[in-house]
């Protein structure tokens, strides 16, 4: 799963903060308990000396004798733990009040379950990525539940023979299915079917961004790494890093090529140069080779895409995407008109 370095840094810092907080609070509880119940402090001191007692007791003994001594000391250790637990409960504390209460009992807030990332750490990465997506989208994160078909006309379009509402209902269903069934190739099943890419075309205000963000939200909640960015911002950032690093691969380009799902909004808004053309080709081609899907939205018509981009870019773009044409009237204008009428 690919997340940005910023997300990993934030997640690691939060995990460390959780661990520090749990251990600090445990130390404060311990001091309070020792002051209130001195017997617990004495028993805890005996318990802490168990290791030293074991070392002294078995020094010079034969293996069989040492095992018997260790077993006896372990029984004493368990008896001390039971006494401490009983005293804690008698004085209104939980039986484990002397120990840190970690957010995650599996990894004890280290972020690692053995050699692997703990589930809690992966969940935190997902949470932070979702929050970042919400901020970077410059709008409240959309969902499928907030997408309304009421703004689309029921009058059939002559060129399509169906109404905008029926057309958008089908696109909406396809997007929901896409998010629900999103999958990537695994090392166990490298030839298993994976999610395809999508190309959204149509004028502004028809729901392309809304449905893109709704897909992003559900895919992130399933634990995948999603990068949602406008074409203009992405290409500007890659170009800036490229020339700062004298032509070397950039962090942003690497993340764009390797994240689980790339959602590129408003293709065609970027300033056209040879660099942007080659970067778009590299991005699409690399993701195709890695079998990683992408979703691209654009206000351009297919004929305009073919004129604007190189043959190699068009071939990659149109050759691997399911194309969805958004139709209807500008939803944002309709909503604005409705709000204006209500105020009047």
Give short descriptive properties of this protein.
alpha/beta; two-stranded antiparallel sheet; 2 domains; 344 residues; 13 helices; 57% helix; elongated; Rossmann fold
Relative strand content: 5-15%
Mean pLDDT over the residues: 84
Low-pLDDT regions:
none
Distance between the termini: 51 Å
Radius of gyration: 30 Å
Order of helices and strands: HHHHEEHHEHEHHEHEHHEH
Largest sheet: 5 strands, parallel
The total strand number stands at 7
Summed up, the domain count is 2
Q: Can you say what the CATH homologous superfamily of the largest domain is?
A: P-loop containing nucleotide triphosphate hydrolases
The strands making up the biggest β-sheet line up spatially as 4-5-6-3-7
CATH topology group of the largest domain: Rossmann fold
Describe the structure.
With 344 residues, the chain is α/β, with parallel strands linked by helices. The chain has two domains: 25-116, no CATH class; 137-338, P-loop containing nucleotide triphosphate hydrolases (Rossmann fold). It has 13 helices and seven strands. The chain has a five-stranded parallel beta sheet, with helices on both faces. The protein has a two-stranded antiparallel sheet with strand order 1-2. Helix 2 (38-48) runs antiparallel to helix 4. It is elongated. The two termini are 51 Å apart.
């Amino acid at each position: 799963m690919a997340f940005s370095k910023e997300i990993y840094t934030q997640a690691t810092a939060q995990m460390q903060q959780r661990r520090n907080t749990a251990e600090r609070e445990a130390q404060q509880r311990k001091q309070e308990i020792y002051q209130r119940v001195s017997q617990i402090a004495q028993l805890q001191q005996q318990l802490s000396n168990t290791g030293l007692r074991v070392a002294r007791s078995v020094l010079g003994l034969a293996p069989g004798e040492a095992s018997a001594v260790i077993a006896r000391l372990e029984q004493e250790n368990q008896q001390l733990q039971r006494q401490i637990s009983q005293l804690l409960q008698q004085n209104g504390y939980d039986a484990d009040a002397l120990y840190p209460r970690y957010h995650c009992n599996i990894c004890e807030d280290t972020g690692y379950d053995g050699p692997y990332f703990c589930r809690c750490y992966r969940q935190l990465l997902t949470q932070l990525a979702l929050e970042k997506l919400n901020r970077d989208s410059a709008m409240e994160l959309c969902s499928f539940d907030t997408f309304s078909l009421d703004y689309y006309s029921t009058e059939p379009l002559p060129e399509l023979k169906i109404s905008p509402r029926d057309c958008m209902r089908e696109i909406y269903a396809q997007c929901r299915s896409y998010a629900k069934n999103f999958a990537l190739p695994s090392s166990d099943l490298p030839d298993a079917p994976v999610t395809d890419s999508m190309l959204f075309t149509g004028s502004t205000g028809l729901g392309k961004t809304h449905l893109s963000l709704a897909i992003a939200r559900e895919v992130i909640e399933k634990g995948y790494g999603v990068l949602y960015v406008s074409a203009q911002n992405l290409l500007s950032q890659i170009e800036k890093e490229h020339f700062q690093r004298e032509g070397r691969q950039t962090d942003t380009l690497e993340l764009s090529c390797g994240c689980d799902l790339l959602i590129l909004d408003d293709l065609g808004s970027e300033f056209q140069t040879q660099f942007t053309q080659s970067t778009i080709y590299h991005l699409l081609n690399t993701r195709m080779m890695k079998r990683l899907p992408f979703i691209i939205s654009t206000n351009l018509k297919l004929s305009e895409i073919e004129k604007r981009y190189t043959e190699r870019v068009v071939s990659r773009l149109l050759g691997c995407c399911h194309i969805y044409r958004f139709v209807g009237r500008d939803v944002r204008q309709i909503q604005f008109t409705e709000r204006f009428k209500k105020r009047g």
